[in-house]
Design brief:
- Two copies of one chain form a homodimer.
- By secondary structure, the first copy, chain A, is an alpha/beta fold.
- Chain A has eight helices and eleven strands.
- About 2% of the residues of chain A have low confidence.
- Chain A binds a DNA duplex through α6 and α8.
- Chains A, B: Pfam families: Response_reg (PF00072), Trans_reg_C (PF00486).
- Chains A, B: InterPro entries: CheY-like_superfamily, OmpR/PhoB-type_DNA-bd, Sig_transdc_resp-reg_C-effctor, Sig_transdc_resp-reg_receiver, WalR-like, WH-like_DNA-bd_sf.
Chain lengths: 226, 226
DNA sequence: ACTAAACATTAAAATTCCCTTAAAATGCAC
DNA sequence: GTGCATTTTAAGGGAATTTTAATGTTTAGT
């Protein structure tokens, strides 16, 4: 776990750095906003902890700059500015969490765990897409509904995957043709209808609540019925 | 944006639900932990807001159960339990954020924005067009007025979409023929009148304030009456 | 108030869209 | 190449949508 701390107050830095290192984290420290920005741009971190009041660029501008540059790792703002409006400005400038000084160290640690859980978890947890009782495991390429295994062919799998990833959205045949069949314009074929029928037979036929619906003239949706 | 609120205190629910709906969020409500779990398992949400003290399963157990079941959308715990240890327990049971009651509503909204920013890969918009209490979701191709769902066919949808996009402007039949029916000149048909009638039946008939008006000799306007 | 034009409404006709089935083509392993 | 599974094409039928057409109502101008 790599963490960047941006803070000019030596005492706070010491406290955080020591605490984090006890949890086996690698900690980099920047003492002003510019240095923080440079470090964050050049290296990959699991988390940035930043003060708002900083020499050079302040923490809010730093957040915005980082986000504008496409840097997406979690940012926790840690500051003495404690009014509700301060918090709103902080969060809206791109931070993921906001903790007001003085704080208890164990709360900081819990918030750090919450923020970093995702990035770590995503490596370990299985790659499973879900809607209602229908599950799709992208690693094992297996699909099941209500626990019953469903065997799909490659095309059927791609099609269903696209539907699950865009569940709730009505997807036009033109879009499916482009994304699943890689054809840009209609070639007067009905493959899509045939494949929707195949998928339906497998995921919906034996079940009461149908998931794959057609909106005539618009496309298909995968969703729970109302 | 779909949000699930799990809370047994009616007043708090009212406040949150109303505030979120003003921001064009779809809000589902569960009044106890079990119902919350069932809704969260069956549907896809962008965020769950849950109280800790709940009838049935409490908020902490709910978090753990949801995470154990592979449900990964953000959870915000909202509770009166404000000690640091409460927060730590909450965050460590799988929640992403923890807000102590009483809170200012605008802080809740800012935290919601921060939590959902990520999951909405495309912040670009929830893709909703609106006029008065009439809403049109371009993704789900669904339309509602004052919360009541309205089913439209493809042509009706296109027509209404054109009206909403150009609300307040008087649109001639010639323009509609060109934009919606792709014909450049009049073929002595009355399809447009028929379809305006269809749309009116669905969006205006059951409501007091009519939105789709005709300006004889000029065309149609979608607007609030004066 | 009367008339012609513009629009609204309704029902039936025409068409499009989609589902389904089966057969043909393709790809793949042996 | 043969046989099997997958993918694509083709065709028929049914239902929902779209259009036409006929009739009723409102509006604007005289």
């Amino acid at each position: 776990m790599r963490i960047l701390v941006i803070e000019d107050e030596i005492k706070t830095v010491q406290l955080i750095k020591q605490g984090l290192e006890e949890q086996q984290c690698e900690v980099d420290v920047a003492y002003d906003g510019l240095m923080g920005f440079q470090l964050a741009s050049r290296n990959h971190y699991n988390l940035i902890i930043s003060d708002i009041i900083l020499p050079g660029i302040n923490g809010l501008e730093l957040c915005k700059k980082l986000r504008a540059n496409g840097i997406s790792f979690p940012i926790l703002l840690l500051t003495a500015l404690g009014t509700t409006d301060d918090k709103i400005i902080g969060l809206d400038s791109g931070a993921d969490d906001y903790l007001v000084k003085p704080f208890e160290f164990k709360e900081l640690m819990a918030r750090i765990r919450a923020l970093t859980r995702r990035s770590i978890g995503s490596i370990q947890t299985a790659n499973v897409l879900k809607i209602a009782d229908l599950e799709m495991d992208l690693d094992t390429k297996s699909v099941s509904r209500a626990g019953n295994e469903i065997i799909l062919t490659a095309k059927e799998f791609s099609l269903l995957e696209y539907f699950i990833r865009h569940q709730g959205r009505v997807i036009s045949k033109a879009e499916l043709a482009e994304k699943i069949w890689d054809v840009t314009f209609d070639t007067g074929t009905n493959v899509i209808e045939v494949y929707v029928n195949f998928v339906r037979k497998k995921i919906d036929k034996d079940f009461d609540t149908k998931l794959l619906h057609t909106q005539i003239g618009m496309g298909y949706v995968l969703k729970m019925p109302n």
